[in-house]
Amino acid sequence: MWLYPADYVINEPDHEVHNRDANELISEIEGDILYMDPPYNHRQYGANYHMLNTIALYDEFEPSGKTGLRNYERSRWCIKSQVSNVFDDLVGKARFKYLFLSYNNEGLMSLEEVRRIMEKYGRYELIEQPYQRFKADKSENRNHKATSTMEYLHVLEKV
Q: Which of 63, 77, 130, 140 would be 38's cystine partner, CB 3.0–4.6 Å?
């Protein structure tokens, strides 16, 4: 694999980039719109996107295991017993007028759970969109036999 530097336009941008735990960062930022697209299930992003993390970090590391994974911190968003508390904490601390959460019906949090949490903090709406389910695993033994999934856009206007 060859990595070449990107060509950048040097300008005076008005944006910030953060690489931190969202639940820690949320107390330090504010704005009009917060868009959230957290992990839906138990799969850890650190394991799935380790090559992208390596490219982004551009550092030296000691690969581990057969697949050469980096060490990574397990996300509480991927743990069924913790995800609701982590989500409630983030929404409660968010100093944004509008919050949008992209999630689907196969997520660790149920539709009712997300609604209950968001309604505590303001005016809540739900937009639903059916999609053909992504099927990386074509075997008969896969966990989800459904051919479609429901994508939800949860909308909260904080009051």
A: 77
- Do the domain assignments include residue 130? yes
DSSP-based three-state secondary structure for 95: strand
Q: Locate 84 and state its tokens.
A: 């609701």
Cβ–Cβ < 8 Å for 88, 125? no
Based on the structure, what is the number of domains in the chain?
2
CB atoms within 10 A of CB 23: 15
- Laid out side by side, the sheet with 30-36 consists of 30-36, 95-104, 148-158, 122-132
54 and 116 housed in the same domain: no
Residue 86 sits in which domain range?
26-40+79-158
Query: CA–CA separation, 113 vs 132, rounded Å?
Result: 24
List pLDDT tens digits, range 42-80: 888 777 777 887 887 888 888 888 877 888 778 899 999
